[in-house]
Structures are given as C-alpha cells and as structure tokens.
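Handout, page 2. Input:
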Amino acid sequence: MVENKGYKEFIENIGSVFNKAKSKIVSAINVEMIDAYWEIGKNIIEFEQKGKLKAEYGSKLLLRISKDLKLKYGKKIVAVVHIFSPAKSLI
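Output:
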C-alpha cells in the first residue's frame, strides 16, 4: 500500500488527540478522588468528634469503619480510611 504524504502526520494527529483526552481524563479523576478523600475525612472527623475539639481516645472507630466498609464495598475503599488518624482534626 502506498502512503499519502500527509498520512503519517494524520495518524500522529489522531494519536495526539487521543493521548490528550486520556491525560484530561486522568486529571479529572484525580481531582474527583481528592474531593472524595477530603469529604470522607471530614465526615469521619465530624462523626468521631461529635462537635468536640478532639475525638474520644480508644474508640476504635476507624477499625470499625474499615471492617464495615470492607464487608460492604471491598478492600480498595478501606485504604481511604487508613489515611485518617483520630489525632487529626479540621482545625
């Protein structure tokens, strides 16, 4: 098959458009995951602290959350809970 002069450039252009779209998708997913992690952490802290400055020591809430989330949603979501610590607060 004989190639046209611009065919190689044409193929490169299609590849470039595709790669640019993939990059935008990855970036959008990262933004959404950061938002989700922030909201999950905020919810955990608010639930755990119940309006107080600090959480009650020894409540083992994160262990319970991890167990329950793993049972309901699988192992991958549990990694999100392990990011947070009872010592962290919103302040």
